[in-house]
Amino acid sequence: MGRGRPKLYHTAEEKLMANCAKSKRSYYKNKPSVRAQTDTSEVSQTAAPPVYKPTGRPKLYRTPEEKAMANRAKSKRSYNKCKIAISARKAVRYRAETRGRHSLFKGARREPHPNLDPVTVVGWMKLVSKTSAEFNARTGGSPQSYLEGLCQNYMVSRRKDKLSDACIHLEGLRNVTTRCLNGILQLAGVGKELGVVQTLGRAVGQVLAWLEDALCAVMCGYSEVVDMHRTRQLMYQSA
């Protein structure tokens, strides 16, 4: 008989025990990888499949009102940014639309607008007299009564339109008196005419200061105006 592989196990029980020992050694040798594979398989079986959400533009506005407010703010910013260009385009379009609508008489020529500022002391004093008459007509000769009437009108109607209009009108009169003061000072220097203009300017400035004080009280609220008027804390009441 030829020589073969030596016989290691003489009985079936010895061979079974050797196989068990070999399997045990192999298990402990590969234990970490086996556990990882087991955990991965368990997670893959129990966990829900991931849900992929489409990545789009983030939602900025939750309600239609928020979107409308944002659009209005955007339009306002755009208008303020391009206000000069828009005004220029409007002027050009208006001239193009009105050109030829009001034609001149045959043979008439366009003349440049004359200078509104007088060139003599007499002319300036006429403008001063006109401004003084307009101021007296506005105030009725009694600035305190004029302010009292405006405040009474506000407390009855709760509308500040007349106060605002009066303030705008007197601001225009003050600008005219400033022009007269500069013109007379340049032509005649310090003198009687300049004193007349200065007196008118002080009167207009005083009434304008009273109006601005009343408007400041109006901005604080209706009750503030009523309380200040009742306790005579308005500027014109203590003049």
TrEMBL record:
Residues 35-47 have a biased composition (Polar residues). Residues 25-59 are annotated as: Disordered. It comes from Pleurotus ostreatus (strain PC15). This is Uncharacterized protein.
